[in-house]
Amino acid sequence: METMRQMGAWWAYASKCAQQPANAPGCDLFWNAVVILAAVVVLVAALYIVRAMVRSILATRAENARAAERARVADADTMARYKADIDAQLAHAPEDQLEERIRQALKDRKPDEWGRQGVSRDSQARE
Question: Are 20 and 13 in contact (CB under 8 A)?
């Protein structure tokens, strides 16, 4: 019951101060509360708008980054046109000549190249 009486008193005070000019004595508390409440409402609205703008800007930047990445890589038709045909290259590689090519490469190699790499023939002979 006490709360209802206090609420009624606050309502009467607010009604009286709302009807009087802002510089009326005894109404400073009411007008300060009104100004603070209005400032909070404006601030919340401004933060909501700024948040929406920042989200939009970040989404635009992310989309631009994705578009730049897509532009950096060729499209599927271009990639298919320049794709290496590994199967065709391997089909033409003669397996039977591979052993002969290795033997020929070993024959063509100079005798001083037969040692360990980085070690000359003279140092191998001393060991």
Answer: no
Mention every residue, 6+ apart, whose C-beta is less than 8 A from residue 30: 13, 14, 17, 18
pLDDT tens-digit series, residues 78-104: 877 877 766 666 666 566 677 777 788
What's the full length of the chain, in residues? 127
Q: How many CA atoms lie within 13 A of 14 on its CB side?
A: 9
Task: Report the number of secondary-structure helices (H) and strands (E) in the chain.
Answer: 6, 0
pLDDT in tens, 40-68: 999 999 999 999 999 999 999 999 999 99
Q: Report pTM.
A: 0.47
Q: Tell me, letter by letter, the H, E, C secondary structure of 47-108.
A: HHHHHHHHHHHHHHHHHHHHHHHHHHCCCHHHHHHCCCCHHHHHHCCCCCCHHHHHHHHHHH
